[in-house]
Amino acid sequence: MSKHHSLLQSFGAVMVLDGESRRIQAVSRNLNKLLGLADTELRAISPATVLGKRLSQRLRQELHGRQRLASPLAFRRLHDTTRLQVHAYRTHRHVVVEIEPLSPLGKRRLLGTVNERLMRLAEATHQEELLDYLVTAVQQLTGHDRVSVCHFDSDWHGLIVAEAQGGHLPALLGQRFPASDFPITLRRTYERHPIRLIHDASAHAEPPLPCTPEGESVDLRHCFLRAPAPERQRYLQRLGVRGAMSLAMQGDTGLWGLLFCHSAAPHPVSPPVRDAVRTLVQMATQRLLLLRARQEARYLQRVQDSLVLSTNARVEPQSPVELLSAQAETWCSLFRAHGVALWLKGSVYADGHTPDAAVVAQFVKRLDKAHRHSGPWCTRGVASEPLTESLNMPDQCGILAVPLPMSVAQRGWLIFFRPEQVETLYWAMQPTSAPLPPVMVAPSAAWCEEVVGKSEAWQRVERLAVMDLGEDLTLAISAYEISTLNMHLERERKALAAANQRLEQLAHFDPLTQVWNRYRIEQAIDAELVAAKRYGAAFALLLFDVDHFKQINDTHGHSVGDDVLVSLARLVETSLRGCDHLGRWGGEEFVVLATHSDMDAAVGLAERLRSLVATLHVSGLDQPITVSIGVAIWQPGDSCKTLMARADAAMYRAKRSGRNRVELAEERVT
Questions:
Q1: What one-character DSSP code corresponds to residue 58?
Q2: Domain total for the chain?
Q3: Domain boundary among 243, 268, 297
Q4: What element of type H or E holds 544?
Q5: Which of 297, 316, 332 finishes a domain?
Q6: Which domain covers residue 138, as residue numbers?
Q7: Are residue 266 and residue 123 in the same domain, yes or no?
Q8: Is residue 428 part of a domain?
Q9: Beta bridge partner(s), residue 70
Q10: Which residues make Cβ contacts (< 8 Å) with residue 523, sequence separation at least 6?
């Protein structure tokens, strides 16, 4: 254990008890002063003498069988009205008790202020508005000179995206901090301890605690009062900061960013204010994730609105050339591309700024060998990517490609191209090994880097959307092939029979799970709508997807993700009635068409499927598999689109309510 892990900040004190919390084993040197006691040997007295009998008993009771107190406890000093706060947790064979003073704040006033700010955060409709209000509210609560929100990109570089100024430190808004400032050990620490307070980075730390009577040193790595490490002190010194507080902003897939509070002078922050700030940050983070989810949903809807290919193909199938000509401009706009190419059976169809057909063919040949799973492939640096660096693509810097499963033996490819986007980055601290100045430079003199040879990054939602587009395009092309072959029925009956069998399978069944695909389940829903309208036969749609499926793919690989989808589809399909139907709606989403089902029967079926899926085990996956299910019951006047929209809204409500649950869709307003 490093020596600095045993040093403490002086604004609080530490007392170490035995595992039963009955005897004092060690104390920090400043505990007597904090408690207002005479300079005496505290280890000679009991915890009840220091904390009071009632608080000492409560401490033992609440720590019984627990790792730490669920919430802090408060008590008064023996000889005056000074109030103190206690945090306690277990480490090895000891109980570490952290004690710090409570400032005389008006609790009701603070609670009212926090509630008002929480309501303002809940009303924010854009990320910029949300974060700007968050930093302003925190700066007003804490009084720090500067409060900033730092967002991490995929390489763990930090960008200051919001800031409130209140004093003597320069602005950092728009500047970046290199990933080396946020090593993985520091990021993992924030997962366990989301808030960190440094009262005075330049203050002398309290010396290490004395050893326990058994000669053991006490591990204080998880102590809130621990002093900053020397490298962190030097880092804050370069920033011109003495008082600092930072809070983690946890996203749905990890650390989204940090909120920094900095002051040029020592700056205390009382526990109630820290708790208030933490509540605001948690609320803002949840609102931020919700706003992002809504934005992504709107984008996906725009892409889905352009996916009319399979519907049109039923009436008037289009050739790949016609499809590309009709849709290329819309697709390029949606995916912020300047060119798109379609590779099918050795032929290249292109629109906009794309490489030569021979170069596209060579790229597809390499891609087919290197990229075997069904997800998209992308890069933003063609010249530095091993797969493309030797290809002649002078006008391209970014590529997004999605496979089209035309048959078991052969795939087509839909490929988007992006140009170079020269980007100027302003770094608050130079991301190199060059010597750093003793104090951070002014913003106007921040280290500037011009990034060349890269395109805009492909966003996660774009990678999801291109998979939907690829599936729909596959159906449209398959429908065209069927139509073309049918025109030659008389002359090529034998060849057409074999081709029709293959194309029928491709047009109606999902190639991975072998259940009905979206096109086929839509047909069945349309037929059931006609029957319901004519005879009043009730039916229901159950829309569900796999919880945390992206995490499964990222952690265990796409092959395990594919196994999950195949196993789940097989389990659900074999448990349905003969009159019910299962289809893959797209990605990890599935839909069950439950015929002759009222509300009670549909909800009962959904609960049975949810429980059944929870028993599923997939080789190579050690976590349980769960689904969130939305149930929509047919109402007169419903269409396939309105039914699916209500089921989709119910499913996302199930996700927001904790996942692994069933939600019934709201009735359609007529």
A1: H
A2: 4
A3: 297
A4: strand 539-546
A5: 297
A6: 107-297
A7: yes
A8: no
A9: none
A10: none
> Rounded to whole angstroms, how far apart are CA atoms 93 and 536?
70
What CATH number is attached to the domain comprising 220? Answer: 3.30.450.40
Shared domain for 127 and 269, answered yes or no, is yes
In this structure, the answer to whether residues 354 and 477 fall within a common structural domain is yes
What percent helix, strand, coil does the chain show, rounded to 5?
40, 20, 35
Q: Give ∠ CA 345-349-354 in degrees, rounded to 5.
A: 125
Token pair listed for 569: 């589809």
Same domain? For 286 and 142 the reply is: yes
The whole-number pLDDT of residue 3 equals 52
Same domain, 586 and 659: yes
Evaluate whether residue 447 is within a structural domain: no
Q: Is residue 435 part of a domain?
A: no
Nearest to 171 by CA among 154, 155, 148: 148
Give the other-Cβ count within 10 Å of 323's Cβ.
20
In a domain, 438, yes or no: no
Same domain for 648 and 516, yes or no, is: yes
**What is the edge-to-edge ordering of all strands in the sheet holding 24-27?**
24-27, 13-18, 94-101, 83-91, 73-76
Q: How far apart are CA 524 and CA 501, in angstroms?
A: 20
Q: Which residues of 527-565 are buried (b: 16+ CB within 10 A; e: fewer)?
A: ebbeebeeeeebbbbbbbbbbbbeebbeebeeeebbbbb
Specify the DSSP class assigned to residue 80.
S
The model's pLDDT over 481-537, given as tens digits with 9 standing for 90+, comes to 887 777 776 666 665 666 667 777 677 888 899 999 998 999 999 999 999 998 888
The pTM of the whole model exceeds 0.70: no
Walking along the chain (670 residues) 10 residues at a time, the average pLDDT comes out as 68 90 88 79 77 89 86 81 88 89 69 88 92 95 95 90 90 89 88 91 85 80 88 89 95 90 93 92 93 89 71 67 89 94 93 95 93 91 93 94 86 94 72 46 55 87 91 85 74 65 76 91 92 90 93 90 93 92 92 93 94 91 92 92 93 93 81
- pLDDT by residue (tens digit) across 82-116? 888 999 998 888 899 999 988 766 555 778 888 88
Strands (E), 64-141: 73-76, 83-91, 94-101
